[in-house]
Amino acid sequence: MNKTIRRASVFTLLLVFALLVRATWVQFYKAEALADDKDNRRNAIETYAEPLGNIIVAGRSITGSAPTEGGDLAHKRTYENGELYAAVTGYASQAYAPTQLEGIYQDVLNGTDPRLKTVMDTITGTRAEPGNVVTTIDPDVQKAGFEALGDTKGAAVAIDPRTGEILAVVSTPSYDPTSLTDANTAGEAWEKLTGDPDKPLTNRALRQPLPPGSTFKLVVAAAALEDGLYGSVDERTDSPDPYTLPGTVTDLTNENPNAPCENATIRTALQYSCNNVFAKMAVDLGQDKVRAMAERFGFNDETQDVPVRAYTSVYPKDMNESSTALTGIGQFDVTATPLQMAMVSAALANGGELVSPHMVSRITDSGGDVLEDHTDADAKRIVSSGTAEQLQSAMQTVVEKGTGSNAQIPGATVGGKTGTAQHGEKNSKTPYAWFTSYAKSASSDREVAVAVIIEQSDAARSEVSGNGLAAPVAKAMMEAAIED
User: Pfam family of this protein, just one (predicted)?
Assistant: First the structure.
């Protein structure tokens, strides 16, 4: 064999060896990564080869699967009342990554969760029968919130204070997840939804923190009572009206100039939503004590899962006294989701204990056997029962004869707090309208806590208020939750 042939042979063998090494590396070291790659079409083919498991509300499936015509994806996701439940389900799409419960529990719903496999599935190598996701959502409360919000841009959350069960998660404007399920038509729907300035794909209830305005005064009041700054909600505070922000010549005034806010009690200050009282209270407490109380309620928690990851509600750090005063009325850099403000009311309504909010009660296999059970949620004490009882009483005054009168429900005990938060530079845009509340039925043992934000409505700027816009939505949801 001459030298040229020998060299060519060695080079060829090296190429073959390199190919074998590469193939071995791909098969044994990269196989899992390639299998999990979102662009691997085999995953979509396998996922939609059979019908998916379902998301269940009050014993009824609100999702389904339908056969497709032609193509290699045999089935597609379907939704019943898609717009109504979009903030709960999210979407499962042949073209886009799943979201919300569809995304969190995709392995259960498509049958690839190893807990679903039977011995026969393992032997035959077949995919297991898919499981189901059973939610805590109450269809009546969900519908009441959705219809009450109507054409406004806003959101609402309802929680059972005793169990932590989330009874409703509503975000408007909504969208129909069905429009995104079919790969052949999803692209056009996606462009329309993502190009909509009202952002219907955004879950405003869980994932859009905004200034909570005067609803945050409940947190400041809780801090003052727990710290001993004031002994009761009926003790007069040291609160000049107007209150000059520390280090400035700016006077902080009240929406109602005739309200009895000078040195008002906490009860009166909540009833009339006195800015001077809570701004000075925040300064007297100091930012660290206010932040500590806010964090006990759930602010600054970056791992708040329900099980959807909620965006963090924020109480800021490293402020001067002027900024601390503004946080006392839920402004400056304070932000909160409706979920967070519902948690505040839920903890106070439950005697000072916050039960972890959750919207999934259990995960089951196809036969109904439970894989995960979330019905016994953790609880933690936020404030003493005495503080909770005092703030319940003050919140009832707000509804009975204060700024929250539109939330009154005959035959029920209702407490609440309104809020109107500034929006835009120098409050140049329409303010946000808030209402956070709780209701307890007089004829049954039913309770509920609700928080509502109206981000944008057709109301004139002068008519925007928590009582005028948000309280009626909360009332509708509370009535649906506590009715016999």
Answer: PBP_dimer_2
Show the domains of the chain with their CATH numbers: 207-359+380-482 (3.40.710.10)
pLDDT tens for the 484 residues of the chain, in order: 577 777 777 777 777 787 777 766 656 565 455 445 555 557 777 889 899 999 999 999 999 999 998 778 889 999 999 999 999 999 999 999 999 999 999 999 999 999 998 877 777 778 899 999 999 999 999 999 999 999 999 999 999 999 999 999 999 999 999 999 999 999 999 999 999 999 999 999 999 999 999 999 999 999 999 999 999 999 999 999 999 999 999 999 999 999 999 999 999 999 999 999 999 999 999 999 999 999 999 999 999 999 999 999 999 999 999 999 999 999 999 999 999 999 999 999 999 999 999 999 999 999 999 999 999 999 999 999 999 999 999 999 999 999 999 999 999 999 999 999 887 666 667 899 999 999 999 888 899 999 999 998 877 766 789 999 999 999 999 999 999 7
What distance in Å separates the CA atoms of residue 94 and residue 119, rounded to the nearest whole number?
30
Name which of 75, 70, 193 is nearest 130 in CA terms.
Answer: 75
Please state the φ and ψ torsions of residue 192, each to the nearest 5 degrees.
-65, -45
Best CA proximity match to 341, nearest among 204, 484, 457, 452: 452
Q: In whole angstroms, what is the distance from residue 331 CA to residue 424 CA?
A: 12
Catalytic residue check, 214: yes
What is d(CA 91, CA 349) in angstroms, rounded to the nearest whole number? 34
Candidates 65, 214, 273, 437; catalytic one:
214
Distance between CA atoms of residues 465 and 472, nearest Å: 11
Angstrom distance (rounded) from CA 468 to CA 462: 11
Closest by CA to 52, choosing from 115, 103, 119, is 103
Q: CA distances (Å), 215 to each of 170, 201, 204, 331, 405, in order? A: 19, 26, 17, 10, 15
User: How much is the pTM?
Assistant: 0.91
Q: For residues 31 and 385, give the distance between their C-alpha atoms in angstroms, rounded to a whole number.
A: 56
DSSP-H helix ranges across 29-118: 31-36, 41-47, 82-89, 100-104, 106-110
| C-beta of residue 440 within 8 angstroms of C-beta of residue 479 | no
Burial state string for 189-213 with b = 16 or more CB within 10 A and e = fewer than 16: bbeebeeeeebbbbbbbbbbbbbbb
What's the CA gap between 360 and 164, in Å, rounded?
Answer: 10
Q: Are 237 and 264 in contact (CB under 8 A)?
A: yes
